[in-house]
């Protein structure tokens, strides 16, 4: 006889009562195939003995099973599982197609942001907007740290309760040290607020700082998710051109003279998507304009860790002594986007005001992961990882740029980027980017169709951001060959 005392755990005094609990437990055993069709149910007396209930209780359970069609009782034999079961025997119940409503019964407004694409098949090559190569992440060390954090929490379970919404202190300390040592941001743990990626940082900051009707300035081409977040607050977006030195500040100043500007969103290290660096002279002027016209500078430093040739220009936040600049960053390009670790660096009073907003959407972050990542920073693993990745990515950039130049020269023009994880370039007139993307996909390469980067003044998409870090040199060569083949097929 099966160990029914283990298979049918009962809760005495609970509702529904014991007969119903026994019946439900036996149905579950039938569904899982533990009691196959035609199998005998245990005799009522033995089952009652094993479960420590009286025989009538089991009798009532069997009556319930019989009524529902699960049990057949023939004279003078033990009851058996019915051959004509109400549900499929031995398998979890399949959900019949079309049972779940395909549409909602109510109206709603969709947000402007495009949903993230599906994960590509493993065999597909991807030249995306600039992701890191997750194959390089020190997974084993991160997993070890996570395990240690998890064990620690087992001894101090309060660590797994609701905690401060600004992130684990150890990570905030380590991030402050890293931001100070790598880029001169003079922050302490009290000036760091950990978020799930910088996207959440933009969202929380927009809730706090942007009201309907406010003017938010962004670059002519900018980060679509940030645009959508500001627009979702009812902000009016004003756009400023970008040239080879970054944001065109004369345009910004004209705008500021015409109307109050609440906030400027800027990616100075490498403008997204064009990869241009905001020049040192313009940085000084930008901070002066922010003072003069009283706007907030939201500095998105999403890829500061990747510069290949020269020392980078330090962030605006490293020069700001007036509390004008709010700095955001992310480990999405350092580890991988799925880890969802981002941060805001700002005066403590701003961070204190973010906390109650974060509680409304997420209560708190992921203390175990944050602890595990803090230890990667503390013991130097993350710095070593970055040094290695930087070397690899520089090599990949060179291989990629050489291949693009050799194979796509008539169709694609670009300036090799000084840093970052992607190349920005323009396709010649006549190249139909959506068709090119389609053809590449058929050949096993995913690229954008360029619409995300298209200006309203451009009749069709012509520019593309091609991330090179995520692929090995051999994969990059293959990708460029596919691009060449697709272009030749279309022209
Ligand atoms: C301009 C820009 N900012 C921020 C991010 C990072 O977003 P998150 O930290 O939410 O992953 C990205 C990621 O691609 C980006 O391109």
From TrEMBL:
GO molecular function: DNA binding; DNA-binding transcription factor activity; pyridoxal phosphate binding; transaminase activity
Gene3D superfamilies listed in its UniProt record: Type I PLP-dependent aspartate aminotransferase-like (Major domain), Winged helix-like DNA-binding domain superfamily/Winged helix DNA-binding domain
Superkingdom of the source species: Bacteria
Protein's UniProt keywords contain Transferase: yes
InterPro entries listed in its UniProt record: Aminotransferase_I/II_large, HTH_trans_reg/aminotransferase, PyrdxlP-dep_Trfase, PyrdxlP-dep_Trfase_major, Tscrpt_reg_HTH_GntR, WH-like_DNA-bd_sf, WH_DNA-bd_sf
Matches recorded under SMART domains: HTH_GNTR
Keyword Transferase: yes
UniProt cross-references to Pfam families, sorted A to Z: Aminotran_1_2 (PF00155), GntR (PF00392)
Keywords: Aminotransferase, DNA-binding, Pyridoxal phosphate, Transcription, Transcription regulation, Transferase
Domain named HTH gntR-type: residues: 16-84
PANTHER family, A to Z: HTH-TYPE TRANSCRIPTIONAL REGULATORY PROTEIN GABR (PTHR46577), TRANSCRIPTIONAL REGULATORY PROTEIN (PTHR46577:SF2)
The family this protein is said to belong to: In the C-terminal section; belongs to the class-I pyridoxal-phosphate-dependent aminotransferase family.
UniProt-recorded name of the protein: PLP-dependent aminotransferase family protein
UniProt organism field: Hymenobacter rigui
Organism placement in taxonomy: Bacteria, Pseudomonadati, Bacteroidota, Cytophagia, Cytophagales
């Amino acid at each position: 006889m099966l160990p029914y005392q283990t298979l049918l755990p009962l809760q005495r005094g609970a509702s529904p009562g014991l007969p119903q609990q026994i019946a439900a437990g036996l149905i579950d055993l039938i569904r899982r195939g533990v009691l196959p069709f035609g199998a005998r149910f245990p005799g009522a007396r033995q089952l009652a003995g094993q479960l420590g209930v009286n025989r009538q209780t089991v009798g009532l359970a069997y009556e319930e099973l019989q009524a529902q069609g699960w049990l057949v009782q023939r004279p003078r034999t033990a009851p058996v599982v019915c051959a004509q079961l109400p549900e499929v025997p031995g398998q979890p119940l399949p959900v019949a197609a079309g049972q779940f409503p395909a549409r909602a019964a109510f109206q709603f407004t969709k947000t402007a942001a495009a949903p993230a694409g599906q994960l590509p098949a493993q065999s597909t090559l991807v030249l995306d907007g600039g992701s890191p190569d997750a194959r390089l992440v020190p997974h084993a060390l991160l997993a070890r740290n996570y395990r240690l954090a998890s064990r620690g929490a087992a001894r101090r379970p309060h660590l797994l309760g609701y905690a401060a919404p600004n992130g684990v202190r150890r990570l905030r300390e380590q991030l402050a040290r890293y931001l100070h040592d790598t880029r001169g941001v003079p922050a302490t743990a009290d000036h760091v607020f950990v978020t799930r990626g910088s996207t959440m940082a933009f969202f929380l900051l927009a809730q706090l700082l942007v009201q309907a009707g406010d003017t938010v300035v962004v670059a002519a081409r900018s980060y679509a998710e940030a645009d959508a977040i500001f627009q979702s607050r009812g902000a009016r977006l004003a756009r400023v051109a970008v040239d080879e030195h970054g944001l065109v500040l004369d345009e910004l100043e004209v705008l500021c003279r015409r109307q109050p500007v609440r906030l400027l969103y800027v990616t100075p290290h490498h403008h997204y998507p064009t990869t241009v660096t905001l020049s040192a002279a313009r940085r000084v002027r930008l901070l002066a304009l922010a003072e003069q016209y009283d706007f907030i500078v939201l500095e998105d430093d999403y890829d500061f860790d990747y510069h290949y040739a020269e020392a980078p220009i330090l962030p605006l936040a490293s020069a700001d002594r007036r509390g004008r600049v709010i700095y955001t960053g992310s480990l999405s390009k350092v580890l991988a986007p799925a880890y969802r670790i981002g941060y805001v660096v700002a005066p403590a009073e701003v961070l204190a005001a973010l906390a109650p907003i974060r509680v409304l959407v997420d209560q708190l972050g992921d203390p175990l992961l944050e602890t595990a990542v803090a230890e990667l920073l503390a013991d130097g693993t993350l710095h070593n990882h970055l040094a290695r990745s930087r070397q690899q990515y520089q090599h990949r950039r060179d291989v990629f740029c050489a291949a693009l130049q050799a194979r796509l020269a008539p169709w694609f023009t670009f300036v090799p980027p000084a840093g970052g994880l992607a190349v920005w370039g323009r396709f010649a007139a006549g190249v139909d980017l959506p068709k090119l993307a389609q053809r590449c996909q058929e050949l096993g390469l995913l690229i954008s169709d360029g619409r995300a980067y298209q200006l309203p003044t451009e009749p069709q998409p012509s520019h593309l951001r091609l991330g090179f870090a995520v692929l090995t040199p051999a994969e990059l060569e293959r990708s460029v060959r596919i691009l060449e083949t697709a272009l030749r097929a279309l022209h």
